[in-house]
Structure formats: structure tokens, C-alpha cells
Amino acid sequence: MRHLLDILDLSTEEIGELINIACDIINDPDKYSEKCRRKKLATLFFEPSTRTRLSFEAAMYELGGSVLGFSESSSSSTAKGESVSDTIKVVSCYADIIAMRHPKEGAPMVASMVSGVPIINAGDGGHNHPTQTLADLLTIYREKGRFNDLTVGLCGDLKFGRTVHSLINALSRYTGIKFVLISPDELKLPDYVTNNVLIKNNIPYEETTDLLAAMPKLDILYMTRVQKERFFNEQDYIRLKDSYILTPDKLTDAKEDLCIMHPLPRVNEISVAVDNDPRACYFKQVLNGKYMRMALILKLLEVE
């Protein structure tokens, strides 16, 4: 039985297999419409979500399966004091696979130790978000046709941005990758990611506070939201929330084939005026996420 807790649980070969399956789903969705018939996905979301939860649900429905679960902890027995472990043991009796989001880092790992069915980490605190990374990777592949030899700009909240941490882990395994880390000093990439991933693997990177200066060299610009829910005080959030706002004028010196990404939801870090730019790929990411979650469900359930 396999779980997906961290993007590194998947080899680059397995990621390639998932991308091939996702592309086949895109080309021939009818072929997959009954693949998970009589299978049940449980979505256990202890933290609010729109895209990720609905994406998992849409993925399972389009595979012919069914869905059960909850969308907030207050509507589950954890509100009565039940432990995560007990919740998982119970839900394992009802479902064939579980997608779980939790505000505490490491909660999906705890779940995987007691679960009788595969666990998918749908986001744990500021730590990891591997299925968003799968969506990101399919987007990059469909837009660029490769993962090698790319300069990737990561902009905004790099400290608490679990999507950023997962994407760095994933892309660091390919050749010719360079990262440009764009953030205020207070939201810099955590040392454990810088030291254990970038420096340890000799991945070229630079840190800057200047988005405009970095723009001309980027193949991919990955914007992120400054996350209010991760801050300990509102004053710091208010001071930093508008650090970077992408507007059409800031794209003047960008490459014509720049790929602009964002894990969503956005607040105001990308102006709606950018939405009509052909380089805007963040809504494509949403759709790609559904396809990659479909592929992942098939893999973890060992469906041919």
C-alpha cells in the first residue's frame, strides 16, 4: 500500500508515468469514466479549501467513483475531542482512499501509520502540498514541454508557502534548474529548505527583493499569496500582504513565453488585468490539478 505524503515519495520516473496517464485522460476521458466504479474517496479537510477539495471530488466522480467526507473540522468528531488517529481508523472502514488536509504539519504522516487505506496529503500546515505540485508539474510540462533547463522565479510568501516548498523539492531533481527567490526578508525561504535541498544538491539560486529586476531572466514566475492564517499577529500580515502585486506593466520586460503560475486563491497579488495575458496559466493549473489527481488515485488504488 502506497501513500503520498511528500512529493519526494514519487520518483521522477513515477511523475513521468502520472503525467502520461493525465495526458491520456485529457485525450480520451471516456476510457477512464468507470475505472473507479464502486470505489470511495474520503475527503477529510480539517482546514478550509475550495480548489483542492473540489478537485479531488471531481477527479473521483469522473473516474466513476463516489465521495464522502467533511469540509471543516467543526463538522467532524474532532470537535468532540476525537484524535486524528481514531478518525482515520474509522474512515478507513468506509473508504478505499483518503485525501486529507490538516493545519498541523506531519498530521498526514500520523494518519498513514494507522490507516488501512492509502493516504494523500492534501496540505499540512506550511509544510507540504504534493498534489498541488503535481498540478504545477503538469502545467509546466504542457506549457514548456520539459522540466530541464528552466529559471524559476518564486515570488511572495516563501516562508509559509507549502506549495513553494514542494515545488522546489520536485524541480531540484532535474538538470539545469535555477531558482530566483523573490520575497521580503521576513518571508524568505526557510533555512531547512535552502540548506537541505538547494545547497545540499548544488542547485543554483539567488535571493532578491526586486521582482522587476528578476523578471527578464525568468521562464516561470510562480506567484504566491501572503497567507493571513499563518501569521501570529495581524500587524505583520497587514505590513507584508501587498509586498508584490503583478500588473501588466511589470511584464514589459518578461519573456514572450513566460509561464505565470499561482496555486490560488489569490487576493490581490495578481491583478485581474493579467488574466487575459496569454502567459497567464493559473486557471490552467486548476484544471491540470484535476487530471493529475485522477492519475494519482488510479496509481494508489492500483487500477490498471
Describe the structure.
With 304 residues, the protein is an alpha/beta fold. It folds into two domains: 134 residues, Rossmann fold, CATH 3.40.50.1370; 156 residues, Aspartate/ornithine carbamoyltransferase (Rossmann fold). The protein has ten helices and nine strands. The chain has a five-stranded parallel sheet, with helices on one face. Helix 5 crosses helix 6 and helix 5 crosses helix 10. The longest helix is centred in the C-terminal third of the chain and has 19 residues. The radius of gyration is 19 Å and the shape is globular. The model has no long low-confidence stretch (mean pLDDT 91).
CATH class placement of the largest domain: Alpha Beta
Give the H and E element order.
HEHEHEHEHEHEHEHEHEH
Shape annotation: globular
Q: Which range does the strand content fall in?
A: 5-15%
CATH superfamily of the largest domain: Aspartate/ornithine carbamoyltransferase
Quickly count the domains.
2
The largest sheet is: 5 strands, parallel
CATH topology (level 3) name of the largest domain = Rossmann fold
Major sheet: arrangement of strands: 7-6-5-8-9
Helix content: 25-40%
**Annotation field: number of helices:** 10
